[in-house]
Structure of 1,4-alpha-glucan-branching enzyme:
Amino acid sequence: MSKDLIKGALDIDPWLEPYSASLISRQLQYHQWLETLEKSEGSLFDFASSYKKYGLHADKATKAITITEYIPDVQLVSLVGEFNGWDVDSHRLEKKNDFGLWQLTIEPVNGDYAIAHDSKYKISMLTAAGERIYRLDPWGTRATFDKYTTLYEGRFWNPELTYTFKHPRPHLNEVEGLKIYEAHVGISSPEPKIASYKEFTQNTLPVIHKLGYNTIQLMAIMEHAYYASFGYQVTNFFSISSRYGTPEELKELIDEAHRLGIRVLLDVVHSHSSKNVEDGLNNFNGTDHYLFHGGPKGNHDLWDSRLFNYSNYETLRFLLSNLKFYVDVYGFDGFRFDGVTSMLYKHHGLSYGFSGDYNEYFNQDLVDNDAITYLMLGHRLLEEISEADKGALFTTVAEDVSGMPTLCLPISKGGIGFDYRLSMAIPDMWIKILKHLRDEEWDLGNIVFTLTNRRHGEKCIAYSESHDQALVGDKTLAFWLMDKEMYTNMSELSPMTETVSRGLALHKMIRLVTFALGGEGYLNFEGNEFGHPEWLDFPREGNDDSYHYARRQFNLIHDDLLRYKFLFRFDSAMLELDTKYGVLLTPQAYISLKHEIDKVLVFERNGLLFIFNFHPTQSFPDYKVGVEAAGEYQIVLDSDSKELGGFGRINDLDSAGNKISFPTLPEQWNNRSNALFIYVPSRTALVLQLKSKVK
Ligand SMILES: *[C@@H]1O[C@H](CO)[C@@H](O)[C@H](O)[C@H]1NC(C)=O
Ligand SMILES: *[C@@H]1O[C@H](CO)[C@@H](O)[C@H](O)[C@H]1NC(C)=O
Ligand SMILES: *[C@@H]1O[C@H](CO)[C@@H](O)[C@H](O)[C@H]1NC(C)=O
Ligand SMILES: *[C@@H]1O[C@H](CO)[C@@H](O)[C@H](O)[C@H]1NC(C)=O
């Protein structure tokens, strides 16, 4: 009976059979929680709507303001702020039940709200031990930096005019894969400063749209007191970062993205929380286990942060509401869950090598089933929102290095519910290759293995580099390839050097092979589409609070004399392959050739023929390539074309200016039914399509 719960997963991967008991117990624990919540709260949907009740809320009709908080075990709770001169006695909350629910309604004063919009407030408590403490509202929707206290201060966000969304969520196109632009609002300008939501809307969205990305993954949105944490030390879960502007301005950004047909995912950090007490969630009610695990279990040693207790009822309310809040209020179209490996395992993946042995994923001593239940409830919640919201589809991506089986299968098939996982092994591979191997030593077999080594039936997002590689201490692909010459030799006025020509060629080829072989979705980090020079380094003590490296120099692509524009154009041409012909959401490629001496790689995916010649010097005038479908082929992408910064060694036009076709011969070759001959210059990638299908 209960085996039915995981039948889908077993059908896809029979090797899971010995771990059926673990898989079933995950499903049962999830169903148990779902039932509990439905019984006590009506539905998961209602439970996750708690953000509408908890915290401070204004009633537009009556102008009354109500505050509701969950704070167990304290003696007194009061609301203090600029509105009452921070008086702990004037606005005391009333204890509503024994579980720690406190509430107070503040009637209007002279017909208006008693608390002014954007004014500061805090929650004051008298703990069981008699200590008076002041904290920010865990549900607060606005926090701003105060120069005087050097802390983030909570504010009551209740503007007269709120932004009204004008555009519906873009629909997911059935044949187009997820093409994700990973972006950070603050760095999205060439100037050494913090860019705003408005600037992103005006200047960055058009660039993303022009490139052809259909999804943005917004980083560092949830408020984080420390800018240099890249958003990973969240202090205020319901506040969007005030550094870049107001909540209304972020809504406008997302609405404008929707108008352009671009969906926006939030990088959600539910794996841990900042340790800050004064302006964070830590020690909220005076003890370490409010929403978090108590004791050492509640600390992440490497990240120096606090860990949530996912078996706690109120923690689930808080986190699930947080998801629904971002979907409802800001219009986000899904989430990239950060730090999933840390959530899945009690050891948090810290100095733990995953070998792929299934025992590593199902051993009850290693795995945190409560976190798994939380993730499943989160996915069930998105389904419920989708059902209530005209079938809006939400996308989730897991940042998981461990390769946990079933993570990206629907719950109905016995999975955890994610849509995609990030293929974190791919960027690591490219770095290793560029760091350690001469070009003659590249191992095509290993490259292909890493790009295609993924769980059957579970979708992956491929990427050759993300923000991780861009951050200081690491190096981007462009920097590994061209390094100092990026400062001196990127001008078209200076002669092409060996370093730059190699860099441009390989930068394009690495992206294309990752895109075409690596997954069912593709991701690029802001700036890397044009080989952004330098690393990312946020202002901090160690660099004299400099913004010099906390920016993206989009001006480089607009400078016609610089070669960055070629890399930029290539990105767009590459993404277009998916938009026009369908690459990402199609079955895995058939690889017909990995020639380690010639350094030639040939494969077909959805009828497109991909040919890569990674050889540093050898060009092949009449290379014989196998292909399944017979017919006349034409080149639809040539990485060596002059327009894309190459040498233009292939002339694919005849004397009349028509595109040359490459006819197949009915000859078995590399286990394909047909073959064609084509000139493949060194360090060049070609993509061909049947002439009849060229768009
Ligand atoms: C704080 O909240 C936790 C539950 O989340 C409770 O166990 C603890 O007793 C509370 N501490 C104080 C000092 O009120
Ligand atoms: C986590 O929460 C559960 C349920 O509230 C509680 O029983 C347990 O003691 C907590 N664990 C820790 C380590 O605080
Ligand atoms: C390329 O850069 C190097 C080092 O940065 C420099 O020495 C060299 O003169 C440059 N070459 C050209 C052709 O500009
Ligand atoms: C040859 O191709 C067929 C059909 O594409 C495939 O099933 C078979 O596994 C291939 N054989 C080899 C040795 O790759």
Summary: The longest strand covers residues 620-627. The radius of gyration is 27 Å. DSSP finds 17 helices and 29 strands in the chain. Residues 20-41 form the longest helix (22 residues).
